[in-house]
From TrEMBL, chains A, B:
Belongs to the FAD-binding oxidoreductase/transferase type 4 family. Coiled coil: none annotated. It comes from Blastococcus goldschmidtiae. Pfam families: FAD-oxidase_C, FAD_binding_4. InterPro entries: Alkyl-DHAP_Synthase (IPR025650), FAD-bd_oxidored_4_C (IPR004113), FAD-bd_PCMH (IPR016166), FAD-bd_PCMH-like_sf (IPR036318), FAD-bd_PCMH_sub2 (IPR016169), FAD-linked_Oxase-like_C (IPR016164), Oxid_FAD_bind_N (IPR006094). Gene3D superfamilies: 3.30.465.10, 3.30.70.3450, FAD-linked oxidase, cap domain/gating helix. This is FAD-binding oxidoreductase. The lineage of its organism: Bacteria, Bacillati, Actinomycetota, Actinomycetes, Geodermatophilales. Residues 86-265 form the FAD-binding PCMH-type domain.
Amino acid sequence: MTERSWWGWGTTDHALTDAECVARAAALPGLPDRPRPVPRLADVVLPASRVAPPDGLPLSTDHDDRARHAYGKAYRDVVRALSGELPGAPDAVAHPADEDDVVRLLDWASSAGVVVVPFGGGSSVVGGVEYRGDRPWLSMDLTALDRVLEIDRVSRAARIQAGALGPVLEEQLRPHGLTLRHFPQSFEFSTLGGWLATRAGGHYATVLTHIDDLVESMRVVTPVGISESWRLPGSGAGPSPDRMFLGSEGTLGVITDAWVRLQDRPRFRASASVAFPDMSTAFGAVRAIAQAGLHPANCRLLDADEAANSGASTSGACVLVLGVESAVHPVESRLEELTGLARDSGGVVAPRREGARDTAADAWRTSFLRAPYGRDGLARMSAIVETFETACTWDRVDELYATVQDEVGAAVHEVTGVPGRVSCRFTHVYPDGPAPYFTVVGVGRPGSEVAMWDDVKTAAMEVLTRLQGTVTHHHAVGRDHRPGYDRQRPEPFAAALRAAKGALDPAGILNPGVLLDPV
Amino acid sequence: MTERSWWGWGTTDHALTDAECVARAAALPGLPDRPRPVPRLADVVLPASRVAPPDGLPLSTDHDDRARHAYGKAYRDVVRALSGELPGAPDAVAHPADEDDVVRLLDWASSAGVVVVPFGGGSSVVGGVEYRGDRPWLSMDLTALDRVLEIDRVSRAARIQAGALGPVLEEQLRPHGLTLRHFPQSFEFSTLGGWLATRAGGHYATVLTHIDDLVESMRVVTPVGISESWRLPGSGAGPSPDRMFLGSEGTLGVITDAWVRLQDRPRFRASASVAFPDMSTAFGAVRAIAQAGLHPANCRLLDADEAANSGASTSGACVLVLGVESAVHPVESRLEELTGLARDSGGVVAPRREGARDTAADAWRTSFLRAPYGRDGLARMSAIVETFETACTWDRVDELYATVQDEVGAAVHEVTGVPGRVSCRFTHVYPDGPAPYFTVVGVGRPGSEVAMWDDVKTAAMEVLTRLQGTVTHHHAVGRDHRPGYDRQRPEPFAAALRAAKGALDPAGILNPGVLLDPV
């Protein structure tokens, strides 16, 4: 059985070896010549726990357990973990076995004034599963609530517990020929509840982009009671209760299960790749596709840098990866319509044989899933490697793309002293605009990596908020995006959300600092 | 120029003549032999206004203006108006010319303790635009805010003022080759702001069913300030601000404008109709279509009664009307895929010639737009004619359909003493369930129509809430659906919404009694 990494992404067997770390850093002159060692988990220094767990509650103050729940998996979390000290570790870790445990834990925490931070797979890259205040706190690990409770084959829906990791829930659906087909990059290491709480972005590049649209109903334990919406395919009965909890990031309650919409397993699939000489031409093609109502399952645009790095192109071109799938009807004609639109917009469609998988698409996918391990290897070499993402309307995408390249590029240069890389892909596209995703790579200085990244991130947030791209399309707000989020959200909405939180969480114990200031 | 009816649906030129009323009532033995006369507007009795409009505010206490803003256009509103007395009429009608007027009106109303009910086209069928309390109140008519303010052709979006009626906004979009294509039955007599405030259901039977999905951003005047979200094609930044105002039905603020997603005008269209021997067989076909990912623009199922009454079928069959459209690509092959699925599920596809319009579809559409005028004619004959709608998952639709027929049918029989009609169609369908829409027709007793309908409606709400179909798919909650809505919404969500309202509307002036109890 593979072991989860306590300090980095995923499982330990996929982590880069020391030699791989060095090899990968070769493209970045000026880095140390060997990777920072990974501390032994047993040696990690934690503060003393301030919580004495009462009898009868599933609370642990075990050293390793606390260390594993200290942070998420952002670049800054990895760098901080590699230091061997986790000053922000939780005082205790709760392991509820069922919803009743969640209720009892919230009751106790509310009365004891102990902060509760829900923890699914722990893959947050925005500081969503840590706590940065002074109160005692517990991390509530929900992964024991991982069952598919009911399946409605007729309506193609299932009631699934929130703590189920992606593979765990898919494994239970497979015998029924069904799938949620929600595949964020974190799929293996994130949970349904985490996806719902953060409005995760998934497999589909169009239409069903966010988990939001896959939700029939949700069950949420709040400190004042359990909220359960009805299973409905659609409704117009007042503001949607589910939409208030979707994206609430643990501040309003703990999601315990949800009815979600499923798909039949696809029987027909086809993919193609299209090369473009530059991003501006590619933007036009992607826009034409997004506005044509053809709804491709995959529509990922890679700029030249991302295409080269993933192996999707060796010619310096930008590459658009298109995919269509269906459980019911052949999809070749639909793919032809899509590639036809791309060709009409100046693209060169790679030769393909009907039924064959596209090699650029495959190369990209492999690279995509391996990327976080590469990041961790580079982090051990003191490189700066992180991503940020947004969405904006088509009328602004040229300016946003250019300005990010300019200003974030300049910030990397200024902070590190040498030019870095700022590359871009689109993860999802809408009729009115794309969701661009940026990767930044630069040469860090050992011991200063987090502060350096913070400066770069500040520059990125400045561009996004100035051009009114969302501060996050699917990474969530957490603590790291708060400054930008506070500019983005309308103030009356913030006042309403604050009041709603006051009604549901009167003791203010739920993930304070996320979305709203602690009270 | 056609004149709007003050007492009934739409324009006066479409109202049934007395002879047409009598003819239409022929199928309902036991009704009076002549229609109730329509009172002259000038003769309508109103209570004295309790509001002395201050200088400088666009407030009217004109008799006719007050009478026209007393009620919406539900059956009960029509019957009440025909009585010639409007005891619930507003004390004044506000006619803001711009957003600044809205701000000043809310400031004054908050300080004066005057209730404000936003009024768009006034087509509410759920008591959403009246007031049933004891405080002085004003109806805020927003139809002067009817301009398309900006068009973004590249992103295919426009910023449109909330008071624009359907035809008014479409007329401004047409020169740009664009369309919102949101065509509720009330299209001519309802506004963008009303659609947003009530989560209206529109043209598309799948995917883009509710106006919710067409919204990029909204601007809302609340008593504590203006809330404006950013224009975004998609976002994961916290709970969606727009989703809190969508469906808020005037309780949280007054929507003044919104950026909405547009469509290119369709160049390719095709429609077909499919006959089924019974609804259960048809349910299977519609489900197969809804789950196939083909996204038809139209997918309306009519039961035998509706099919016969609309002229879509004369053979006693249930009829499914299918439509596909595109601005980009021919749609014949897609229609073939759809009719193929319907045929595989036991349907008989009506012969069609490529490119020709389907006659059943046309018959249904004409009947659909004329229906409310027919209702008003029957109301003048003291018939009971009203609709209610819901949505449920596929696993429950057979039971829900049968139970509604049984129990609502029994209620009509009991209330009226004779059997009535309870017919059904699907207005929208989702992969996990349909939105059934029911029409009830019965023999009323002059003077008792509203009370009789209330009893039938209570029976309908009882079925829906017991079987957990939503109390409304797109008619909104208003005041009439409150008892069912109070059962449907999770109590913690109600507490959160109440708190949010308290933060945005501290004086409690905004549409009190809708969604929440007045405070």
